[in-house]
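Can't paste images in this forum, so I'm doing it all in text. The chain is below; anyone willing to post the predicted structure tokens underneath?
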Amino acid sequence: MQYKNPAWSQELQYQNEYTRRQNYQNESQYSDIFNGDQYKRLVEEGHFPDYRDVALMASLDGYQIFKQKTDDCWVILFLNANIKPEDWVKKHNLLIGAIIPSPQAPHDFNSFLQPIQIAWR
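Text version of the structure:
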């Protein structure tokens, strides 16, 4: 559906263009997440075979809701790695995966991540 918008479709080509560059596989300098061993390992395992596949990164951050600092809230964000890095954290590109209200940091984050992991399989 995202590729039906021509302008957004072009934005989503960043990952494809980056990884199709000449000598990409032989680069030793890390200038993007696509140079990382984890991404390259995922590609070797057969992930991202289509240029339209979306690579997501997850970020977890906590913040205090009230000035009294009595309650915290934890947000699991997904960032679309297919777009240029300078656009990853722009408000309109952030994908909220979960909001965890809590008076303090949750002791078992994996219990909150499990439903997300199941949904993405």
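Residues 39 and 45 are 10 Å apart (CA to CA). The helical segments are 6-11, 14-19, 37-44, 109-119.
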